[in-house]
Amino acid sequence: MIVAYHVIFSTYGFWLPNDPRGSWSDFVGAWDLYRYGKATKTSETRSLAARPHNRALRLTAKQSLKRPAVKFNGTQARAVGRGFADYAEQSELAILACAILPDHVHLVLSRHRLLVEKLVIQLKGAATRRLVSEGMHPFQRLTEPGGRPPPCFARGQWKVYLDENEDVSRAIRYVDQNPVKEGLPPQHWSFVTPYHRTRSAARRG
Q: Which of 4, 79, 128, 202 is most open to solvent, judged by the fewest CB atoms within 10 Å of its CB?
């Protein structure tokens, strides 16, 4: 039985839909970007970051983006976290681990009544509302009067279904250690719910 989900989603411009290592996308929406290849959708559940690829081509393709790639600073990351907290409270979603990096986010989410894809959409929306309300959205200056800023998060997400307590604990450790691996301080979020193994799993162990 599915216990939780490990999800990763990125900021705008971090992982292109036609990244040579694979992507979460079915199509490439911009012609200038499409010139560098079709979408490279993959069902791979492991991280693709270390997969050998044509790095020069990837970086050249990024120059075709309509807007600069988004990289959150520390203040913006905290606003994103407050958005996650807002949504977790109103939807009774248990967030078991969270790491908000400059260009992508790692979360471990407890099983919920909504599909995981819907949860990610809602979390992105809550984070965006916080960034806008606090005047820190990366594209705030591009917003038309009465309109909304261009998205600061990319479409889609990478996800893994976790169906064993050991898998959940392993995913939580991975997320908790991720900032340190990136050379950043450990992150501690007040909205994260401590995870407890079920009794049946503890007996099996």
A: 202
